[in-house]
Amino acid sequence: MLAAIWAQDQNGLIGKNEALPWYLPDDLKFFKEMTIGNTLIMGRRTFEGMGGRPLPGRTTIILTRNQNYQAPAGVYVMHDVNAVLEYAQKKEHTVFIAGGAAVYTALLPFCDYIFRTVIEDSFEGDTYFPAIEWENWRLVKKVAGKIDDKNKFPHTFEEYERIHAD
């Protein structure tokens, strides 16, 4: 099963200089809880923006067109969408698409679920989530995130499932 997971501000911003433009520990905790024991698919720049190391307890796959890209030990590389789809089809766990914008654009049409954190504030950055045809998705869960000294921005966690034509 393929699922997309991301956090965005109220304007759809998802990145600044290959990193998150905010610090929100509640969302980082959510991301970890959702993805632990599963696979993460991300582009090279997203991977490098996260420190260039695999996250513990998850299989990391970098999707890149660069045929010569040398991933660090424990990280796998794929070069096309079909390879990702074949991999996901064979897995019993969830394969999460984790960025960046080009990877979301390429793989969102094949996702069955979306896990989106919406931060109810505006930030400056350079990368926005690609347009989504929301009529193809149904909101199944929406939960307010906690606000405290470490989590200063109001946010919600949303779960969507794809609406399949009958």
TrEMBL record:
Gene3D superfamilies cross-referenced by the UniProt entry: Dihydrofolate Reductase, subunit A (3.40.430.10)
Keyword rRNA processing on entry: no
Enzymatic class: oxidoreductase
Molecular function per GO: dihydrofolate reductase activity; NADP binding
This protein's GO CC annotations: cytosol
Domain DHFR per the UniProt entry, residue ranges: 1-162
Pathway membership: Cofactor biosynthesis; tetrahydrofolate biosynthesis; 5,6,7,8-tetrahydrofolate from 7,8-dihydrofolate: step 1/1
Catalytic activity line of the entry: (6S)-5,6,7,8-tetrahydrofolate + NADP(+) = 7,8-dihydrofolate + NADPH + H(+)
Function: Key enzyme in folate metabolism. Catalyzes an essential reaction for de novo glycine and purine synthesis, and for DNA precursor synthesis.
Protein name listed in UniProt: Dihydrofolate reductase
Keywords: NADP, One-carbon metabolism, Oxidoreductase
